[in-house]
Design brief:
Elements: H1 15-21, H2 27-44, E1 48-53, H3 63-71, E2 77-80, H4 82-91, E3 97-98, H5 105-111, E4 113-116, E5 119-122, H6 123-136, E6 143-145, H7 146-156, H8 163-169, E7 174-175, H9 183-194, E8 198-200, H10 203-214, E9 218-223, H11 226-235, E10 243-250, H12 264-270, E11 273-283, H13 286-298, H14 302-310, H15 313-319, H16 323-333, H17 345-358
Parallel strand pairs: 1-2, 1-9, 2-7, 6-8, 9-10, 10-11
Antiparallel strand pairs: 3-5, 4-5
Helix pairs in contact: 1-2, 1-13, 2-13, 2-17, 3-8, 7-8, 14-15
Length: 401
């Protein structure tokens, strides 16, 4: 029987070290540490990575965590609520404001402010959103899937920190299964009253099932629950696969039978998650648990990219630098890009595999292959989903995608 280890804090301790120290603690600390271990495995293996987002994550300030994961090639498929995409678009030209949960809501209505707990949004930003949507929504005879519509919207956003723009740039499909239940859906309906716009909601099911069917191995990070959670999990039912790795961050509990609180073990009974899968549910506010999980898992992994460029001498140099200084240097060299992986046996194996040519930026070109132009999209590895002409972009199921 293992014993509880009393957690020890040290000056300058990294988030990764803190979470690793929690694995021998009890309750939520242990669950969050296990989540980091599962997420590390999800990012370090050949695995199609699904991310589902519900709740007001963008208004709360989590937008660039999501777009950073996409641009860091840690997301292959994104499933989200329409509301988060509405607020993502608003952030591309406007902002959300800090307020108070104890505000006089009637007074806020008179002031032209809408409240999301302790975050305010101004009416002028909603008005600008409506004007923008009427400009960028397509006018076409072609019947679009919801995923195709999201790609069109992403292509029209001029903010590289945007979730939709990042997904468009990185060829990551975005599914919004409850699109009508959002201001994007409302604006699309209004647009369709005077112009041509038809969206086939059922087309997304085929595209999602095709992706699931092509998975060799699949992992999922569920933030919240709701429709995005179910849409991703149910899509596995029509494929011979199940999710092998799963993490859920939620505040809901299972006793009331609601989807957002349903345990991942329950999903095993449906065949959505494999009986042999590693999975954990972390109970807590996702605006706390998501940043900790992502920061802890991705800390200091930029080291391997630098070694790939400068050789193993750089590794020895980096190991002599205190962790805080190393993080600063690596972040600076990376131009503010997302730090990818933490130094560990699993991540070393991942880097070495990429260097040997299994895919990713570090893999050397095959003999006689033409040079790859800067900014070119990654080449899908063997077994990745290849869509039909005019279909969804490849989610890049392989290592490093």
């Amino acid at each position: 029987m293992e014993i509880v280890h009393q957690l020890q804090l040290e000056p300058g301790m990294s988030i990764s070290s803190l979470l690793r120290g929690m694995r021998n603690c009890g309750f939520g600390a242990r669950r969050l540490s296990e989540a980091m271990s599962i997420y590390e495995e999800m990012l370090s293996r050949d695995c199609t990575r699904f991310l589902t987002i519900s709740g007001a994550m963008v208004p709360a300030g989590m937008r660039e965590i999501v777009s950073g994961l996409i641009r860091g090639e840690h997301v292959d498929v994104l499933v989200t609520t329409g509301a988060n995409l509405v607020h993502d678009i608003i952030e591309s030209f406007g902002c959300h404001c800090l307020g108070s949960a104890d505000s006089d809501d009637a007074a806020l209505r008179l002031e032209g402010k809408s409240r999301i707990y302790d975050v305010f949004l101004r009416d002028e930003d909603f008005a600008a959103f409506e004007e923008l949507m009427q400009r960028i929504l397509p006018d076409t005879d072609k019947v679009l899937s919801g995923r195709q519509l999201m790609a069109i919207l992403g292509s029209q956003i001029e903010d590289n920190r945007s979730i939709l723009r990042s997904a468009y740039d990185m060829n990551v499909p975005v599914f919004c299964p409850a699109l009508p239940d959002s201001m994007i859906g409302l604006q699309a309906w209004m647009h369709g009253q005077t112009r041509k716009l038809m969206v086939d909601a059922f087309a997304d099911i085929k595209e999602m099932v095709d992706i699931c069917y092509a998975c060799q191995r699949a992992g999922i990070l569920i933030v919240g629950g709701g429709t995005p959670k179910n849409f991703a999990l149910q899509s596995m039912l029509l494929s011979p696969q199940s999710f092998d790795l799963a993490i859920q961050l939620t505040t809901d509990t299972p006793e009331n039978g609601g989807l957002s609180g349903a345990t991942l073990s329950e999903a095993v009974s449906w065949g959505k998650i494999s009986e042999q899968a590693r999975f954990v549910t972390v109970y807590g506010d996702a605006t706390i648990t998501l940043p900790l999980l992502v920061a802890g898992t991705l800390f200091l992994g930029r080291m391997f990219e630098i070694v790939g460029v400068f050789g193993f001498g750089a590794l020895g140099l980096l190991l002599t630098i205190p962790a805080a200084t190393a993080a600063f240097v690596l972040g600076t060299i990376g131009g503010g890009a997302w730090i990818k992986w933490e130094f560990s046996e699993g991540m070393l194996a991942q880097w070495w595999g990429r260097w040997q040519g299994r895919g990713g930026r570090l893999a050397p070109p095959a003999p006689g292959a033409p040079p790859v132009a800067p900014g070119s999209p990654p080449v899908p590895p063997p077994g990745a989903y290849v869509p039909p002409e005019g279909g969804p972009p490849s989610p890049g199921a392989g290592s490093g995608a």
